[in-house]
Amino acid sequence: MNTRDELDPEFVRSVVSHMNKDHADSCLFMVKAFSDQTSAQRAKLTNLDRNSLYFSVENPATDDAREPSAPVDVRIDFSTPLRNELQIRGALISMASHARQILSAELRKKD
Questions:
Q1: CATH of segment(s) 3-110
Q2: What is the mean pLDDT of residues 20-37?
Q3: Buried b vs exposed e over 46-69: b needs ≥16 C-beta within 10 Å?
Q4: Is 111 helix (H, G, I), strand (E, B) or coil?
Q5: What does the radius of gyration of the chain's CA atoms come to, in whole angstroms?
Q6: What is the pTM of this model?
Q7: Can you give the residue ranges of every domain in the chain?
Q8: Lower CB density within 10 Å: C or N end of the chain?
Q9: Over 70: is that where the pLDDT of 2 sits?
């Protein structure tokens, strides 16, 4: 990771902890909406920088496996590099809302 992309480590720890503790559903929705991991069961935010969010994703076990598959690392890029912590907070809120809209629309299509 380029040092220009790095954020204050305490800010990163705070955001990661907050998202995983209070917004685990939003993490999962973002992974399902913005990556190819549409069957994900759990998504844990592991890191972020000015360009991307990084998740560890658990998928369900396959029919021939007794255990869930190994976690998959997923990176979701912001639409543009973000300059500061305020922009990152805003982007997280916006992405979570957009992910919910996408997944809700997909559910309505199936009905």
A1: 3.20.180.10
A2: 97
A3: bbbbbebbbbbbbbeeeeeeeeee
A4: coil
A5: 15
A6: 0.87
A7: 3-110
A8: C
A9: no
